Amino acid sequence: MTDGFDLLASRAIAPLFYRAPHPEGVTPYEFQHAGVEYHLVRDNALFGDAPGLGKTAECILLGNAICARRTLVICPASLRLNWEREIWTWSTIPRVSTYPVLRGGDGVSHGADYVITSYSMLQNKGILGAILDLRWDHLILDEAHALKDPRGNRRTRVICAPDMLPRVVGRITMASGTILPN
């Protein structure tokens, strides 16, 4: 008889039944299905795969699985347009609407399925206020290791405010390929 650890280990490599919803023409890897399956039973979790293994796709696949209709992606500024391309590739929302916030005057789209902004853009009080005025089904924090600053830098203060998150966010997903100290 197989003990519980062996069963969990085997499912981490190849999930027994679960297949994350994905568009035709793209096929997630088995470990991506397993990662989404793992996250489905948790409100908040981290995709900690090594760099280059498709954490962005996993986050979007999770959004598909939970039927998120309003998702906020916060990432480094250099990754905003990459996130937009990946959303167009992996989202199952018909005619998915993305809105990258590239400048402080851009505001936040109330009608977009995905709003993509950067950690530095959260310093803009207008952008932050617009984000806090909306209810988000899914918050994705990419390169989440940027939030671990023990000195309480601006990112940590803005994103991890315990009184803010529960009232505006349904589920929090973090992604980082660099979770250990450098």
Helix-strand blueprint:
Elements: H1 4-13, H2 30-40, E1 44-47, H3 55-65, E2 71-75, H4 80-90, E3 98-100, E4 114-118, H5 125-132, E5 136-142, H6 154-159, H7 165-168, E6 169-175
Parallel strand pairs: 1-6, 2-4, 2-5, 3-4, 5-6
Helix pairs in contact: 2-3, 3-4
Describe this structure in words.
This protein is of the alpha/beta class. It has one domain (4-175): 3-Layer(aba) Sandwich (Rossmann fold). It is built from seven helices and six strands, in the order H-H-E-H-E-H-E-E-H-E-H-H-E. It has helices spanning 4-13, 30-40, 55-65, 80-90, 125-132, 154-159, 165-168, and strands at residues 44-47, 71-75, 98-100, 114-118, 136-142, 169-175. It has a six-stranded parallel β-sheet with strand order 1-6-5-2-4-3. GO terms for molecular function: ATP binding; hydrolase activity. InterPro entries: Helicase_ATP-bd, P-loop_NTPase, SNF2-like_sf, SNF2_N.
